[in-house]
Amino acid sequence: MASEFSLRCYCYLDRMQPQYAAFVGTITQGDLPVEGMASLYIEMAPGNEVFRTVDIAVKATEAKPGAQVVEREFGMFEVHSLNQAAVLESGRIVLERIGLNIEERIRPQVASIQLITNVDPYQAQLLNRWRRGSMLVPGQTLLVVECFPAAYINFACNEAEKGANIDIVHVSSVGRFGRMWLSGTESEAKTARDAAVHALESIEGVKSEF
């Protein structure tokens, strides 16, 4: 099994932050998370394997599924619970059943970072048309972080909220790259940037090209 399966992301969030949990609640099609829950994101290839692994995860413990996404190349799912041990145990059992170790996950990489100060009203309106989080207010600083593999952006966003007083505008964690849009003052946006980069760089794994 290990020779056919690619563990692109194995990403554990110990405590979902208030804004992050609220944002996930606006996009999830599964069980709704709340602040303080632990969460685990697993991304894999081939994508169709996600159906089997979700079944394994939810049968293993009380952890509930919030997302199950399958696209052309990859599959991704998320489980969460107020019980951290249950989330970790679900992940452990999934890895055991697919015959892989956490060390075989792909190590996240920062693909790009943009810090845009004094956002123009027209650009703010364009972003506000499709965002699912807080409105971007003209004059704020906008932070955009892009990473690979995509699902790791959830960890980066949650850690950024822990470290900085920012607003979550939108998060996209499906596809080849993950992206997050955060807003606030210039100093808080820089603090959030540093927290997100540090979080991504703290995760060990196998190096892979974009």
Write structural notes for this entry.
The chain has 210 residues and is α+β, with helices and mostly antiparallel strands. The strands form 2 sheets. The chain has a 4-stranded antiparallel beta sheet with strand order 1-2-4-3, with helices on both faces. The chain has a 4-stranded antiparallel beta sheet with strand order 5-6-8-7. It folds into 2 domains: 6-104, BMC (bacterial microcompartment) domain (Alpha-Beta Plaits, 2-Layer Sandwich), CATH 3.30.70; 109-201, Alpha-Beta Plaits (2-Layer Sandwich), CATH 3.30.70.1710. Strand 3 and strand 4 (75-81) form a beta hairpin. The protein is 34% helix and 28% strand. It starts with 5 loop residues before the first strand and ends in a 9-residue tail after the last helix. It has helices at 18-27, 49-60, 84-98, 121-128, 153-163, 186-201, and strands at 6-13, 38-45, 64-70, 75-81, 109-116, 141-148, 167-172, 178-184.
